[in-house]
UniProtKB/TrEMBL annotation:
InterPro entries assigned: Cupin_8, JmjC_dom
Record's keyword annotation contains 4Fe-4S: no
Domain of life from the UniProt record: Eukaryota
Protein name according to UniProt: JmjC domain-containing protein
Biological process annotations from GO: circadian behavior
GO cellular-component term (any): cytosol
Keyword vocabulary terms for this entry: Cytoplasm
Organism whose genome encodes this protein: Drosophila yakuba
Amino acid sequence: MAANCKLRDLILNSQVPLVLDQFPLEWECFEGSLHDWCKRFDQEASSFPDFELMASADSSTPQWERKRTKATKLSMQQFLREYGVLEEQHTHWAAYQYKGANVVPPSCRKGIDFSSFGFPDVGDDFRFWLGSEEANTPCHYDTYGVNIVVQVHGSKSWLLFPPETPLQSTRIPYEESSVYCLENFYAPDPAKMQSYEHLGRQAYHCNLQAGEVLIVPRNWWHYAEAMSTSLSVNYWVPLKVDMDLVLDEFLVMQIVESFVKGESDQIKQYLLNPNQVGNLTTKPSDLYAQFEQAVQNLESSQNTRKLYDTDYISQADWKTLLNGINHTVRPLQVMPHEEYKRLLSANSKRFRKAASPPETTPISSTWELLVSSMCAPRVIAEMKREFFRRLGKSNSL
């Protein structure tokens, strides 16, 4: 237990991403091969799971979730047959990702336990990510939590940037607790390569292999792409500091919903991530009631989940802790600039081969800029400060 507490302290106080090499997990559900896991899934599932498909050639902008084909029903074994090894001239990638434990058969999640990392109260609050080669998540940062990513099968490339990196933030598409950026790391535009290369001064990278674990500190930007058929499980560690950020997210939600109320389905599907389209409040007063409840919860520190502190030990103590950990833990370093340029150059070839027409936008560029400007993190932070000032609080509750 003491060793687990040390690892927990290391995770919560790290200021850079960490990789845990060949971490000794004993999760029963992943004994055997990926084929074995998929076969059990098919045997126990009541219906075929819904995969999303994305055209590889659709690369003029990040591969936003709104551009993907949804509800493509495949058995897990069919997924492996059709997408397990993509041919050179493949047209799509496929993924079953961001899936909660409640939609995965019991034997396929049996034994998953994050207590070995020092977090025994996870329960079923983790997510599954299964995808073929090239399946990716556009670059973004999570507004809440420290992210623990366990690579179970295959490999995945992670490109990461610290919070202060000058990426172009956007809340279009809007997804609660995710701030995206406009940079397209799947297929960088060769004409804009100079601006991408400038970001290399702050770029971190790893190819996460099966049996390895990645720790993503809070608010770090990250772009993740499967290098082969990949299965991973992740858990966001809830933090006390996140309670304050709940209000930021409610302010963003109010702004975005004010732009989509009464608009066409086409505009809603463009402005909102697909998982948000069906979650709109029925009227503004409902949203304000939720905001007021969030303020009251924050004021009373009311929360049913266990929340963790961060940054409670010095960097000198952190380094001493790192040297005393029994497992091999690698703090990532800024990647060599030539290596970063090679990664960009390889990915930019996808941009040149794009054959599909550019995505049509149902709103004007001015409208889109206005939404992104009003929802920019620094603007939201200033709105919250003004709210607290009028509430009679010096900063936050």
